[in-house]
């Protein structure tokens, strides 16, 4: 599967992460799929504090009710503050699994962002 991240989605998720850089951030990615290509066209910031499954269900319902025509939830983005690597956290994997189970998208992507490199671009990983 090939993923393309459009500017609008990138800017929204990065602004969410930068504004709440001291908290774990998570949101969903919206887009379209054709053949083996997924275009991530938008991002919806969801939480930057504790996540509860009931709130996540309500968030998914609200997103579905307001989806632009032809788009669907195609993945999740996350920025856990304690992460030192850009690998999916258990929370990101869980939200992606819920996206798949709810029938939104069969192969949801997980975009993990290292907060340190966003807030302090001069930081070099060791």
Helical content class: 25-40%
What letter string, H or E per element, gives the SSE order?
EHEEHEHEH
- Rg of Cα set: 14 Å
Average pLDDT number: 85
The biggest sheet amounts to: 5 strands, mixed
Shape: globular
How many strands in all? 5
Order of strands, widest sheet: 1-3-2-4-5
Report the uncertain regions: none
Helix count, DSSP H or I runs of 4 or more residues: 4
Proportion of strand residues: 25-35%
Classification by helices and strands = alpha/beta
Distance between the termini: 30 Å
Which characteristics define this entry?
126 residues; alpha/beta; five-stranded mixed β-sheet; globular
Report on the structure:
With 126 residues, this protein is an alpha/beta fold. It has a domain at 53-64 and 71-78 and 89-119. The protein has 4 helices and 5 strands; from the N terminus they run E-H-E-E-H-E-H-E-H. It has helices at 7-19, 53-65, 90-101, 115-119, and strands at residues 2-5, 25-34, 37-47, 72-79, 109-112. A 5-stranded mixed β-sheet has the order 1-3-2-4-5. Strand 4, helix 3 (90-101) and strand 5 (109-112) form a beta-alpha-beta unit. The longest helix has 13 residues, at 7-19. The termini are far apart. The model has no long low-confidence stretch (mean pLDDT 85).
What order do the helices and strands come in, and which of them pair?
Layout lengths: L1 E4 L1 H13 L5 E10 L2 E11 L5 H13 L6 E8 L10 H12 L7 E4 L2 H5 L7
Parallel strand pairs: 1-3, 4-5
Antiparallel strand pairs: 2-3, 2-4
In short:
This protein has about 130 residues and is an alpha/beta fold.
